[in-house]
Amino acid sequence: MPKSDQLQRSPADRPSRPLVVVSNREPYLHSVAEDGTVAWEPTTGGVAVALDALMRERGGVWIAHGAGNADRRVVDAEDRLLVPPDAPSYALRRIWLTEAEEHHYYEGFANEGLWPLCHVAHVKPVFRAADWRAYQVVNKRFARAVEAELPDLTSPVFIQDYHLALVARYLRAARPDLRIAQFWHIPFPHPDQLRICPYRRQILEGLLACDLLAFQLDRDRRNFLAAARTELGAKVSRGRVHVQNHVTTVCAVPIGVDFDRIQKVTRDPGLEAEKQRLRRELRIDTPLVGIGVDRLDYTKGIPERLNALDCLFTRRPELRTQLTFVQIAVPSRSKLESYKAVEADIDQRVAAINARHAGDGLAGGPVRYRKSALRIRRLVALYRLADFCLVSSLHDGMNLVAKEFVAAREDFNGVLVLSELAGAAQELGDDAVMINPYDVEGFADGLEQALDMPRDERQRRMRALRRVVAGCDVFQWASNILEGLEQLAPQPLPPPPGGTRRTARPLTRQTATPPVPVDR
């Protein structure tokens, strides 16, 4: 086996400086079970999993919105607890939002405004003054929590994504000497698209309060630099933006997955039994299996992949009894009309395909559709069941499902069918089967190529994909960003217009108390 496929890292190889991670989504949530007990579970999504892996190694504190209906029951007097609950290794500080704040800050400005603005997915962005006010209020609350939770003034602060674009500026005004990095996980729009947002200057100024700002792809980095020039008149030189006597380094660092953790799951002797349980539960009795794993989001191209599957089954009717396609779709932002619409559309398309292509010996049709998340062991088992994995994004920052699938294929089997519009295509495009999700016939051609691919070609492609994924996992991603941050000297910003700079107060570190015993 090539050395890259045996990638191992000892704890001594990994960074030890405590870290402050700031994100909207928490890594673990607590909820009340039917019997009244409190249970915990990890949150879904590649970003949450990747950052949790990082924090398990680094230690420190993660500041996030507490969204579970039992989250308040298990925190201490300062809203902290240690996580993971079964193997505590870092502190989680929860931020509480009112129902109105969730509606305006999260559902409104972040996900009806910034999300469609940044994704070329033909959903009109909506910007409301009330949403913007709530966005500012919540970002200030996160900044105050960072001040209170800093292990010490040398700890790097690592802010995540588009929900918190103003945190760095508020934090910089109070603590000018902090080292601050932010990673923008989704695409960054072209300046012409960005002009739709009436608050674009404030968003840009907020991000430029960071010492280091990182994007997934060079495309996004270039878009941001162009926006800084055109909107703020900033001086841009060699990836550095100069505004108000402050310099921000802007770079592209694609995120990875926890390769070693996934490898550990693949070597679990119980994985084979888990695969068989999935076969029974999903009623898979065909020799060929395809999978898709996504949030229920209009950017993921699920209707487009269903169209391609419909085309495939029409072209090759024999596949109706030879191929089962499993679609895992995790409900997301279900209060928003755009998400309700795409969920209803997918429901109808799955029913229509199954009715049209139900063949003898394949009761219910060829598509198995489940609206629920899978924990990592079951997810890896599903990846290992698959002959191919479909990632058909219409526009994506990265899409970690593609990398997770590759990391799970220690058997060097399986084919990744990947949208050329996904960020992951920049790294994996040479050895995945590339498709355009808007081209139904071409997409179906790609599925046929994946199904008919000779074993030696599948193995050659998967070996090459694994070298890429193993070579830049989540720890290398974090190391690239945080080591870059360490090399930069933080520079103060003037206070925001109309504001005053707060006097820094002494920080005291209060260790989070262990959570109360709960059932998982």
Structural commentary:
This protein is α/β, with parallel strands linked by helices and 520 residues long. It has two domains: 16-255 and 474-486, Rossmann fold; 260-471, Glycogen Phosphorylase B (Rossmann fold), CATH 3.40.50. The protein has 17 helices and 18 strands. The chain has helices at 46-58, 99-118, 129-149, 167-174, 191-194, 200-207, 218-232, 259-266, 271-281, 302-315, 337-357, 376-385, 400-408, 425-428, 440-452, 455-471, 474-486; strands at residues 19-22, 28-32, 38-42, 60-65, 80-83, 90-95, 157-160, 180-184, 212-215, 235-237, 240-243, 246-252, 288-295, 323-330, 367-370, 388-391, 415-419, 433-435. The strands form three sheets. The protein has a ten-stranded mixed beta sheet, sandwiched between helices. It has a six-stranded parallel beta sheet with strand order 15-14-13-16-17-18, with helices on both faces. Helix 2 (99-118) crosses helix 3 (129-149), helix 9 packs across helix 12 (376-385) and helix 10 crosses helix 15. The longest helix has 21 residues, at 129-149. The chain is globular. The model is unreliable at 1-15 and 497-520 (pLDDT under 50).
Q: What characteristic shape results from the CA principal axes?
A: globular
Q: Mind telling me the CATH superfamily name of the largest domain?
A: Glycogen Phosphorylase B
Average pLDDT, rounded to a whole number, is 89
Structural class: alpha/beta
Instruction: Give, in spatial order, the strands making up the sheet with the most strands.
Output: 5-6-4-1-7-8-9-12-11-10
Low-confidence stretches are 1-15, 497-520
The CA-CA distance between the termini, in Å, is 38 Å
